[in-house]
Predict the structure.
Amino acid sequence: MTGIMIVLFGIAGLCFGWFVYSKFIAEKIFRLDPNFRTPAHEFNDGTDFVPTNKYVLWGHHFTSVAGAAPIVGPAIAVYWGWVPALLWVVFGTIFFAGVHDMGALWASTRNKGKSIGALSENVIGKRTRALFLIVIFLLLLMVNAVFGVIIAQGFVATPGSVFPAWMAIVVALVIGQLLRRNFSLALLTVVGVVVLYISIWMGTFIEWQLPESFLGLTATANWIVILFIYAAIASMLPVWMLLQPRDFINGMQLIVGLALLYGAVILFMPDITAPAFNTQTAPGTPSIFPLLFITIACGAISGFHGIVASGTSSKQLDKETDARFVGYLGAIGEGSLALITIVIVCSIAYAVSPEQWHVLYNQFGSGGAQAFVTGGAVLVNSAWGLSQEFAQVLLATMIALFAGTTMDSGVRLQRYIIQEWGDIYGISLFKSGLVATLVAVAACLLLAFGAGGSSGTGGMIIWPLFGATNQILASLTLLVITVMLIKMGRPSYYTMIPMIFVLITSFLGGMIQLLAFYNAGNYLLVALDFIVLVVSVLVMLEAASVVSKLKKDQAAAKSEA
């Protein structure tokens, strides 16, 4: 079995999703209207609400939702075998992620750009909004705290990625200013990508490292502090100044990176050394069902996407019909990244024989981002002749840029939630953007250093909750979209079926984790997991009550007619 066969299967499925299924959902279910006045035009304030070219917005949305998860999740999940991982990535992208992401964009756009949490109040009920925001805030806290650790550790492990990662910010600031002066987007894209890749090449010679210890903190901890200072500033800048151009240029950089990796598979045709179904799992390995469906989140379906779609992307949508391009195609971009990750970590690029693969993947949790960087560098070197050192810096920079853009958006979204709490509970101080940003960053740093000590890795303590919490949020987002469709008298099965499946798998996964946390004596995780599970049940009960009443009213109206 060669990697090219996996790629062909995956690309064929994703093409069906884009050209056939997404068009059907956009035209027949969501009925996207090119003449609908979007919130970006209605509330244009030049800061958060800004009508944006769909290609630039796709770059923002894609790189904001991608992070490191579509690499890490599949790279771990292949431990059960590459076939189940492949099927979930391909079919999850087509029928789950694309519909979820486009649906969240559409729902928010139709409701003045409200976040999915605020939108739930209109669609389901007032109590639902408060419950939703608890889950969303916890998820953002996990993502921001942990991605800060991932980037910091990457900077320490691969110092060559530091220069290009910060150079990308300079490039983005310049592009943002030039776009406001109506410079050609195509020209800026080419120049920006070329400059970014030159900086990656320079990173093989320029290695920026922090002292091993400074002010009582390790190099990793100091990078975490620096990253959150940057994220706080970036989250308060107008989206056109940094967020949009940075995400766009990162998206273009990823397209080039994916072209290198997919082209390498075609040229090198690596054999698959991992088993299709792994029958040699270590004792204590968790069951593939339901854990597969929460281990691979981004790259199949992810609740975090709904937060970004309704939190920032919907405020920049120029035309409602752009929701298909930005939302569904953004999901396909993630699926394609997850797909190539499966090929890399399951092929001779990473392990030259089945025996070596089993040595490297000796337990659940093996692999991860480092397997992608190591295997990808070998693949690029073998096919294109580029040095492995350059390839490693390239892939490490790719991960750092993705995680960084996710942090930018994540802190901005946390600020929105704190401001929403200010509105809900009448706390005028929280309505301030500056105060809300400082509270958001303080919460992340408190978790990082309060739970992790001087290492700053405290976010890792609650990271095991991410998978189940993220997928529960995805099911709740699909629930809101489904109720909207029912209220509008439109077919709802296309969102209801994915919603039920994701809810069942994520809830079971959460229950399994709850028991594991309890047996391990991790009572903080027990409490947080319990809160997430209870909140999800309460939201579902609220929604069931609304749908039941709606069905009765519709039946009564028909009988009277």
User: Anything to note?
Assistant: The mean pLDDT is 89. The beta strands are 213-214, 217-218.
